[in-house]
Structure formats: structure tokens, C-alpha cells
Specification:
This protein is α/β, with parallel strands linked by helices. It contains 14 helices and twelve strands.
């Protein structure tokens, strides 16, 4: 069983019991905690959900409202010891205190970060490896995620940084080399690439690049700008259920290009000996998505039963960032997790996904349930 399949199994087991047996929408204690420690970023990626905010918000104002170090410590200390914390952004390494946050979390539970890798240097890579358990599943830094979208020229064009590809691949090499010297299996490194206009014809070149850098998994995702496009309305407390699928910004790609990319990338991954993860849906659904169509009735979301998302300003959301049910500056995660509003949201999601769910990487096709 691959790493991705193992994660899906644990997540599904945790959420399935209350999903099917709790008509009230009450869930077991959350298992996976996504902490958006900052929305700031040093890159301006073409497909980024935050791109509008990053371009329109003055740099000096982008720090405003971020939780301080001690406030994040308080959040981390609320996570159960069997929980998994994913640090995300923005770019987490832009925070001067990020290693402090990672260290605080990694001594009490399992951790993971998602980064573009550009700011990771030998010192921070060494500290990351020191925080890792020897084997997968132990307390400490289990996973590190680095984004690479294609070969050098393609990646740099998408990310808006000359030399970004070299810096990101070097980050992977540092982590894997230091991991080897330490005699550890962790942190396992996964590379994420988003299918988009600029890289769809080059995706099949990624598996050998990822394997040569020493990463363990290539994670290919679909492009999704929904949350970014409707973020302002959501933050103004417009109901997530008030949207129609016709309002959602689907990316568009010719079906034959998407089909060829998926088929050729699978072949290349097998040859390179790298585990490949694709969205939890048949290829035909991925192709249809890039034609502007997704039948939401064919999909299920278990994230609202197992995941907590905490924004850089402390807003708490069950599963994704669509519904704000409280703020960590005012109340605990435990208090909001099974609040009446959270339970109502779960009941509505169980009845049918929302238009704003289109393209989300946390939902999966019903055909995948038996796999």
C-alpha cells in the first residue's frame, strides 16, 4: 500500500463511523489540523488561490491580523497527541518563528509542512530532519511537501521566479541527503504539481525529476481557484450554500491534452519508480472538470468529519475554509468542533456538496469508495 492510500484509509476510517451513524452531524474529535500560519508568500504562482489577495494587498499590510507565536503555541497545544498537523500558507518559512512552531508541534504529535522550498536552507533542513522520527508514524515531522510544476523553464515561468526550480529541487535533495545521513526514513518528501495550461504538456517529464531529487511521492492535483475567487464574499459571511455551479471559475483545457498527460505521467512514474497520486476520481472526471463540468452528486467529502482548518487570523473551519465557526482568540477548537453550526454544516454536506466544493482536493468520487 502506498503512502497516499494509507493516508486515505486512516482518514476514511476516522470519519466513516460518524458520517454514516450520526444523524445530528456530531463527529469524533478532529484528527488532521491544517494551520495556515501565514497567507504571505515570496512567489506569485499563476494558479494560486491567493494570487488576487497577494497582488492587491500591500506587503506591509499582509502581516496584519496574523496570529502571534504564543497564539499559535496555544493552538498547537490543543491538538491531541494522536493528531496530525499540517503547516501551510502562503509560505510558512516566511515566518521568522516558523521553526519554533514546527518544533513545538513535532515534540507532541505528527507533523507535516507544505512549502515551495525556496527558503529552505541547510540549517533549517537539518533542524527538520532532527525533528523527524526514524519510521513513518512516529511522533515528529513525518512529511515535507515541496511544489514543483514541471521542468526548470516551465516551473520558473509558473512560479514567477528565475532559478526557483533549482532552489526547490535543492531543498528536496538537502532533506533526503540529511535524512539518509541520520539513518531515518522520515521526513518523507512529496512533490505536488497542479495540472494547468502552462504545464499539462510537460507533466510526464516530472517523475524522473522527482525521483532523481530523492522525493518519495509525486502528487498531481487539479487547478482550483474557487476559494480564492469567492474568498472576500465568504469572509463577509456570505453563505457557502448560496452559490451556483455556474458561478464557479472552472479552468479550461482540451480533453486530449489532459488525457495524454495523465496516461503518460503514469507510465513515466512507473519507469522512474516513484509513487504517483492523482485526484480521487476517475480520469474521465478530471478531463470533464477541465471542460467546465463536475456532477457534485457523484462526490463525497469526509474532511468536515476529520479535519480542522485554522486561518492565519485564527478563524476555525470544519474541513475546508468555507465556513468560519469561531476564532481561536475567543474560544477553543474543541468548543467549535461540534458546535450547532458545525453540525449543521456537516448535515448539509452529507445531503449534497455545495457549488463552492467544485475542484476541492479533499472530496472524492463515489466510485473510489470501494477501492
Amino acid at each position: 500500500m502506498g503512502i497516499g492510500s494509507l493516508y486515505r484509509l486512516v482518514k476514511d476510517m476516522h470519519g466513516s463511523l460518524p458520517y454514516y451513524l450520526s444523524p445530528s452531524g456530531r463527529a469524533l474529535p478532529a484528527w488532521h489540523y491544517f494551520l495556515e500560519v501565514t497567507r504571505r508568500c515570496n512567489l506569485r504562482c499563476k494558479m494560486c488561490q491567493n494570487i488576487k489577495w497577494l497582488k492587491e494587498t500591500p506587503v506591509a499590510a499582509q502581516r496584519e491580523g496574523e496570529l502571534a507565536t504564543e497564539e499559535w503555541f496555544n493552538v498547537i497545544d490543543q491538538v491531541p497527541r494522536l493528531g496530525l498537523i499540517t503547516f501551510t500558507g502562503g509560505e510558512p518559512f516566511l515566518r521568522d518563528d516558523f521553526m519554533q512552531l514546527l518544533e513545538r508541534a513535532s515534540v507532541r504529535c505528527r507533523t507535516h509542512f507544505i512549502s515551495n522550498g525556496v527558503l529552505l536552507n541547510e540549517e533549517s533542513a537539518g533542524r527538520c530532519v532532527a525533528l523527524a522520527p526514524k519510521r513513518l508514524g512516529g511522533v515528529g515531522l513525518n512529511f515535507a511537501g515541496i511544489s514543483i510544476d514541471g521542468p526548470a523553464e516551465v516551473h520558473d515561468r509558473i512560479r514567477g521566479m528565475q532559478g526557483g526550480f533549482e532552489r526547490s529541487t535543492n531543498a528536496i535533495k538537502m532533506l533526503t541527503e540529511l535524512r539518509k545521513r541520520a539513518g531515518k526514513r522520515c521526513p518523507l518528501v512529496h512533490v505536488t504539481a497542479c495540472i494547468q495550461e502552462d504545464n499539462v504538456d510537460f507533466l510526464a517529464q516530472l517523475p524522473p525529476i522527482v525521483a532523481d531529487a530523492g522525493a518519495n511521492v509525486l502528487n498531481v492535483t487539479i487547478e482550483n481557484r474557487v476559494i480564492g475567487e469567492i474568498r472576500e464574499a465568504i469572509e463577509a459571511r456570505r453563505s457557502p450554500g448560496s452559490y451556483d455551479v455556474s458561478e464557479m471559475p472552472f479552468p479550461r483545457l482540451e480533453p486530449e491534452r489532459v488525457k495524454a498527460a495523465l496516461e503518460q505521467t503514469r507510465i513515466a512514474a512507473q519507469k522512474a519508480g516513484i509513487e504517483l497520486r492523482t485526484p480521487a476520481m476517475p480520469d474521465s472526471e478530471i478531463i470533464r472538470y477541465y471542460q467546465g463540468y463536475m456532477k457534485l452528486g457523484d462526490f463525497v467529502c469526509g474532511a468536515v468529519w476529520s479535519d480542522v482548518f485554522v486561518t492565519h487570523e485564527g478563524d476555525m473551519c470544519p474541513g475546508c475554509g468555507m465556513l468560519r465557526v469561531g476564532n481561536v482568540r475567543e474560544m477553543s477548537i474543541k468548543k467549535t468542533w461540534n458546535s450547532p453550526e458545525s453540525r449543521r454544516f456537516r448535515r448539509s454536506i452529507r445531503s449534497g456538496l455545495l457549488a463552492a466544493c467544485v475542484g476541492c482536493c479533499w472530496m472524492y468520487h463515489r466510485a473510489q469508495e470501494s477501492q
